[in-house]
């Protein structure tokens, strides 16, 4: 695989071709966030897929203080960054300002989706069900603890891959979980735990891919279950009423559109066994693209192999940039 970082500071020229010929593509992977290792794996998987179709692909690391990867003259930048800087709108704003074709959602959408509390507020305004939640800071931790019945979920407001995510079932563990998360982040989210099935719906373009049920032997679909465990199961034959499955798909598409997502996303749900209804947890605007990841699994189940998935995403980015240039 061609992997390098070009430190040339010259601005790249902008090409506006559709992905029918050999393309020059930079895949951004790694980054400064806590999901760096996952991002490196996603980047390698994307690059391998595009290389298999004969395209000129370079995998480059990037950070706020090292933007050399963006100096390469390319047809498209494929963002395979997760978490801080890559998924929160920062790198998207830089790419937009430089006039580069890049994959995925724009900076404002990414910033909104990354902020779980802000996104959940939008979902509720639109009538899309989500679990009860509140934002906790060091200043209101006592009041927050008094307002909740267990079990609850404690997690960062803006983070991914279930990093620093805790399910709290014992009252003696609530304050330690909050304090541990607040020590790492300025604020955190406390959310009512929803028992039942864990469901995800991936969106490609404006189409929902087949729904997946995640079955793990762990307490929930945490980092190890996502990226390490070999016994995590992914099922497409889901024991849910047809009308509920249709509602989940419709709500997923609505949430994707509501936040302004484009190209692809993954919408995560829990289905409450006690009430027989679903609760949206969050939207991932740059979901994982590793061998363990859900978007490639859903695409494969729909008959879209990894190379075609990546090329469809690249095509959407190039088409969008071409349309913007025509409109100037």
What does this 3D model show about the protein?
The protein has 10 helices and 13 strands. With 328 residues, the protein is α+β, with helices and mostly antiparallel strands. Among the domains are: 113-129 and 194-301, D-amino Acid Aminotransferase, Chain A, domain 1, CATH 3.30.470.20; 133-192, ATP-grasp fold, A domain (Dna Ligase, domain 1, 2-Layer Sandwich), CATH 3.30.1490. The strands form 3 sheets. Strands 8, 9, 10, 11, 12 and 13 form a 6-stranded antiparallel β-sheet that branches. The chain has a 4-stranded antiparallel β-sheet with strand order 4-7-5-6, with helices on both faces. It is globular. Mean pLDDT is 90; it is low at 1-16.
* Mean pLDDT over all positions: 90
Q: Tell me roughly what share of residues is in helical segments.
A: 25-40%
**Count of DSSP E strands?**
13
Number of helices in the DSSP assignment: 10
Question: How is the main sheet built?
Answer: 6 strands, antiparallel
CATH superfamily membership of the domain at 113-129 and 194-301: ATP-grasp fold, B domain
Order of helices and strands: EHEEHHHEHEEHEEEEHEHEEHH
- State the secondary-structure class: alpha+beta
Predict the CATH topology of the domain at 113-129 and 194-301. Answer: D-amino Acid Aminotransferase, Chain A, domain 1
Instruction: Give the C-alpha Rg.
Output: 20 Å
CATH architecture type of the domain at 113-129 and 194-301: 2-Layer Sandwich
Work out the strand percent: 15-25%
Ranges where pLDDT stays below 50 over 5 or more residues in a row are 1-16
Terminal residue distance: 37 Å
CATH class category label of the domain at 113-129 and 194-301: Alpha Beta
The rough form would be described as globular
């Amino acid at each position: 695989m061609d992997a390098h970082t070009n430190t040339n500071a010259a601005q790249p020229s902008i090409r506006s071709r559709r992905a029918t010929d050999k393309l020059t593509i930079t895949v951004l992977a790694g980054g400064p966030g806590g999901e760096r290792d996952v991002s490196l794996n996603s980047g390698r998987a994307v690059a391998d897929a595009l290389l298999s179709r004969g395209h000129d692909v370079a995998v480059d690391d990037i950070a706020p203080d090292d933007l050399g990867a963006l100096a390469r003259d390319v047809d498209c930048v494929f963002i395979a960054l997760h978490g801080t800087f890559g998924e929160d709108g920062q790198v998207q704003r830089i790419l937009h300002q430089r006039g580069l074709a890049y994959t995925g959602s724009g900076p404002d959408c990414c910033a909104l989706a990354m902020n779980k509390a802000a996104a959940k507020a939008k979902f509720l305004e639109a009538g899309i069900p989500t679990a009860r939640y509140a934002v906790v800071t060091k200043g209101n931790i006592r009041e927050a603890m008094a307002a909740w019945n267990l079990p609850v979920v404690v997690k960062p407001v803006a983070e991914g891959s279930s990093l620093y995510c805790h399910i709290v079932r014992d009252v003696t563990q609530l304050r330690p979980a909050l304090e541990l998360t607040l020590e790492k982040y300025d604020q955190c989210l406390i959310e009512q735990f929803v028992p039942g099935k864990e469901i995800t719906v991936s969106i490609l373009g404006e189409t929902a891919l087949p729904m997946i049920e995640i079955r793990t032997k762990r307490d929930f679909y945490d980092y190890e279950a996502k990226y390490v465990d070999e016994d995590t199961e992914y099922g497409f034959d889901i024991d849910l009423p047809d009308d509920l499955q249709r509602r989940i798909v419709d709500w997923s598409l609505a949430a994707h559109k509501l936040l302004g997502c484009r190209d692809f996303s993954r919408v995560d749900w829990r289905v409450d066994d006690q009430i027989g209804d679903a609760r949206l947890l969050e939207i991932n605007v740059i979901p994982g693209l590793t061998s363990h990841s859900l978007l490639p699994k859903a695409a494969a189940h729909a008959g879209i192999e990894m190379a075609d998935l990546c090329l469809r995403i690249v095509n959407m980015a190039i088409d969008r940039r071409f349309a913007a240039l025509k409109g100037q």
